Amino acid sequence: MKWRLPKLPTLQKDNQDFSGRHLLLQVILVLIFATMAARATYLHIIDKDFLRRQGDARMVRVETINAHRGMIMDRNGTPLAVSTPVTSLWINPKEIYELAHPDPQEKHPKKPVILDVNALASAIGLDPVDLANRIYKNPKKEFLYLKRHMAPDVAQVVLERDFPAVYGITEYRRYYPEGESTAHVIGFTDLDDHGKEGIELQYDKVLRGESGQQQVIRDRKGHKVKDIAQLKPAKAGQDIFLSFDARIQYVANRALAEAVAKSEAKAGYLIALDVQTGEVLAMVNQPSYNPNNRQGVTLKQLRNSAVIDMFEPGSTMKVMTVALALESGKYTPESKFNTNPGSMRVLNHTVRDHHNYGVIDLGTIITKSSNVGTTQIVLSLPPEALPTFFQRFGFGQVTGSGFPGESRGRIQARSEWKPVQLSTMSYGNGVAVTVLQLIRAYATIANHGVQLPISFTKITHPPQGTRLISQQIADQLFPMMESVVSSDGTAIKAAVPGYRVGGKTGTARKPKENGRGYEPGKYKALFVGFAPMSQPRIAMAVVIDEPSTRNEGYYGGAVSAPVFSTVMGEALRLMNVPLDKPLEAPVPMKAIKTTTPPAALDVPAPMDDGET
Asked: Which pick of 295, 337, 358, 589 has the fewest CB atoms within 10 Å?
């Protein structure tokens, strides 16, 4: 038997089949690309030219897709800044020129089309001469805004009048539902939707998103006839939840405005912090402004003084001086200080108390606000002790909150740490702070000595924090500060029914602009405190700038403490913080009948000619 090899497939035939299929695929691909190219040519050249010749003024153009700016909301989801669609009218000066000067070489020459500038100016409320200059001085420009941010229905009326080369584009305008209450917090955006102040500026990149591009056909009235292609999709900005509570913010703004008006003051500032998280619950400045209508608003009104302005904090710094005394190990809460006869000499300067308090303990220095007592403390310690202690708490440096425009404050240079300067620093003169720095220091004490980062956005997990003083020292300060808000202290008007409150008053002279001496009769009245003392939740600072001195109601316990009481009471209620003492009527403040302030009022001590 003969064996034969099996017959193999013909390779040539298979190659021929493959080549045929490959050729067919190539033909199909060529036809597809040819069709796409022809379509593109038709749309960009033939179709556009045809439509123009027909006088329909349909234009193929690449347009920007404006990204929707993210919302800003309070911690509970209440809108604080939203974007609403508006229409901006624009004109194509180049097209105006071409319409007025048609090409005589065209197969079907068109009649000149002249823009009625007077009618257009009247329709949108512009000066016709200015409008004509803008249009005809830019004959090569293809885009020129006529009027921005018009109500869509108003803009549509103009577009329906069929002005040549006038179009509409959808943009977004910011609206602030809470108005002046949150103006200094939120800030505002400009016409191009870019943040210019406040949170709008701080988180501009996050809120703004990314614009896209699309190719469309529009008619002369600005109507979109057809979407051709989306070249780049727009990416909406992110929404932001702030740490603020709009309800507390509203109460704070109202109470502060009333206090500024009642005391005939120049201005007022308030910041409230959540002691347990470091979140800012409210930040208010008075006078404020309406962010939805900024016409006539001055730069001074835009200024967020609570984080920008520096001032001498006065007696509110005595709490820090007493904390240093406890930390030094030289003093206890029971340590005695002889303040007789109510004054003492430091070199050629005299430090005075308003009354001779005699022999007092450490806590009474805070209760009665003794300048002599704090001076004795600081002069018994190394010169660097107090300035470096202030620096540890963040004075003389920004808080790291990132809020635009925040000031550093000022601690005197080491070369100035001399007895007289240290004495005045011990009771809050010769040092400059911001309200934000001051409230952070008090919140640290309220948090049993642990300082948390300041946050203007809502946080879900509080950070670890940094311990600045021991819990023992912080807790020893609690009863001293609580005694201030008692019938024996300087701030009975800061009391909140149902809650134990602690804090410190301050009434500081305003330095002259040249830095030499103080302005006569001009003060800042302060109260800084926290509640409830059993488990502190909210810390708050209130500053009234230049209250009237006519009725002697210019000290912190008289004008700032009542604002604290009102706002703190509402804030604790809104946050459902449990009461920590029985409800009872607050102790009435004794009427001031003489021109001499009583012992329990914290006013600046009189200075002799040699005192700075």
From this structure: 295
